[in-house]
Design brief:
β1 (about 1-5) and β2 form a beta hairpin. Strands 1-2-3-7-6 form a 5-stranded antiparallel β-sheet. The longest helix is centred in the middle third of the chain and has 24 residues, at about 155-180. By secondary structure, the chain is α+β, with helices and mostly antiparallel strands. The chain has helices at about 40-55, 100-110, 145-155, 155-180, 230-235, 255-270; strands at about 1-5, 10-15, 20-25, 30, 30-35, 65, 80, 85, 90-95, 110, 115, 125-130, 135, 180-190, 190-195, 200, 210-215. The structure holds adenosine-5'-triphosphate (ATP) and magnesium ion. Magnesium ion binds near residues 7, 9 and 203. It is an enzyme of class 6 (ligase). Belongs to the SAICAR synthetase family. This is Phosphoribosylaminoimidazole-succinocarboxamide synthase. Keywords: ATP-binding, Ligase, Nucleotide-binding, Purine biosynthesis.
Length: about 280
């Protein structure tokens, strides 16, 4: 099979008209892949994405063809999927203020051009979920863009439809997670277009790499939250004297273990299934 793309986390192979998306155990912070893998991360992301794709299928079709019909060596962390033309936008929904969204709000009072009320603090719940797209940069960091920028890029019909879909996926995910004691603060989706023009949910969905997960019973606005996601690695990396350019630092064993435990905890709490590897 031909390797057509090696992303920060996934390797993408072409197999005829299909793609095989193979999730590795790599972890990236601030767009730098760290040299230390997190064991089982690729499998957890893959299994959790498959679980969500199924539960979102009435909102939007997804790219999954099969998780079984993949080469043995990758089974468990690979998905055979439809090869799409990806839209050059990261489709982000936020129900709470954190990360770059918080930074942007503190600078301008808006995120992606969406005006927010004054007085919000870190981890504040927003009056309603908002759509805050960014560029999908091939290199370097993604930047906030406005809804009008998205319209200019891909047309009003597609932009409006996928903005609504992004918010609907977020609301469905957040509601389900809330029943299981988890706040989904924000999430990033990716969509592509099939050859017949259909819009399709792609990549990964509502995973701890693409979303912020907080235990609901510990949520307190005004401070950093206990994170069951990649934020834990970012927080550890910011205690170091590292300028966020490659090469990234080796992750110590206890941080590897604690990160893996968080990914497993999120998987188990959301799906209600034990992680058996
Ligand atoms: P980059 O590709 O910029 O390194 P990344 O590190 O997030 O970003 P990965 O998630 O590691 O990338 O790799 C997955 C790649 O495959 C992404 O570029 C994603 O947009 C792309 N992709 C996901 N699903 C599909 C699909 N069904 N068809 C085509 N491309 C897809
Ligand atoms: Mg990705």
């Amino acid at each position: 099979m031909e390797l057509i793309h090696s992303g920060k986390v996934r390797d993408v192979y072409a197999d005829g008209d299909d793609l095989i998306l193979v999730a590795s155990d790599r972890v990236s912070v601030y767009d730098v892949v760290l040299p230390t893998p997190i064991p089982d991360k690729g499998k957890i992301l893959t299994r959790l994405s498959l679980w969500w794709f199924e539960r979102l299928a009435d909102i939007i079709p997804n790219h999954v063809i099969s998780a079984d019909d993949v080469p043995d060596e990758w089974r468990g962390r690979a998905i055979r999927c439809r090869r799409l033309t990806m839209l050059p936008v990261e489709w982000i929904a936020r129900g709470y203020l954190a990360g770059l969204g918080l930074k942007e709000y503190e600078k301008s009072g808006t995120v992606s051009g969406v005006a927010l009320p004054p007085g919000l603090v870190e981890a504040s719940r927003l009056p309603e979920p908002i759509f805050t797209p960014t560029t999908k940069a091939a290199e370097g960091h993604d930047e906030f863009i406005t809804f009008d920028d998205v319209v200019a890029e891909i047309g009003a019909d597609t932009a409006e439809r996928l903005r609504e879909t992004t918010l609907e996926v977020y609301r469905r995910g957040a509601e389900l997670a809330a029943e299981r004691g988890i706040v989904i603060a924000d999430t990033k989706l990716e969509f592509g277009r099939a050859p017949d023009g259909t819009l399709v949910l792609a990549d990964e969905v509502l995973t701890p790499d693409s979303s912020r997960f907080w235990p609901a019973d510990e949520w307190r606005p005004g401070r950093a939250q206990h994170s069951l996601d990649k934020q834990f690695v970012r927080d550890w990396s910011s205690t170091l004297d590292w300028d966020r350019t490659p090469p990234g630092p080796e992750i110590p064993q206890e941080v590897v273990d604690a990160t893996r435990a968080r990914y497993i905890e999120v998987y188990e709490r959301l799906t209600g299934e034990r992680w058996t590897g």
